[in-house]
Amino acid sequence: MTKLSLAPLSWAHPDRRRLYRALLILTSARLSPARAALARHALLQDLEIFDDPRQGQGDWLFADEVVHVERLGEAAMGDRGDRDREVQTTAAVLIRLMEANGAGRAG
């Protein structure tokens, strides 16, 4: 079996690609406030994970990813406090799940 490329462009569905890119940014060792804002914008505005985190369930989100997407949306919208740490921790969990689950179905 060939190993699936995990480059952000390899994901089958555009929203899965957007989510993965945002997660990579949020977990980057070179995370800057500007890059974090860009990733949060993609999550909250483009993917609307706070408004409707289950919209991709069964389509571009796997069942075990949904609860973490919900948690990420809530953390990204919350007060500053520990939000950044929670966002990064949840993003790391989602990256591992997405990599384990694979590319998903084409959109």
Question: Explain this structure to me?
Answer:
- The model has no long low-confidence stretch (mean pLDDT 82).
- The chain is mainly alpha-helical.
- Helix 1 crosses helix 4.
- The protein contains 4 helices and no strands.
- The longest helix is centred in the C-terminal third of the chain and has 19 residues.
- 57% of the residues lie in helices and 0% in strands.
The separation of the N and C termini measures: 24 Å
Report mean pLDDT, rounded to a whole number.
82
Unreliable stretches, pLDDT < 50, 5 or more residues? none
Q: What is the tally of beta strands? A: 0
Shape assignment = globular
Short description:
Helices cover 57% and strands 0% of the residues.
Features:
107 residues; 4 helices; mainly alpha
Blueprint (SSEs and pairs):
Blueprint: H1 14-26, H2 33-46, H3 63-77, H4 83-101
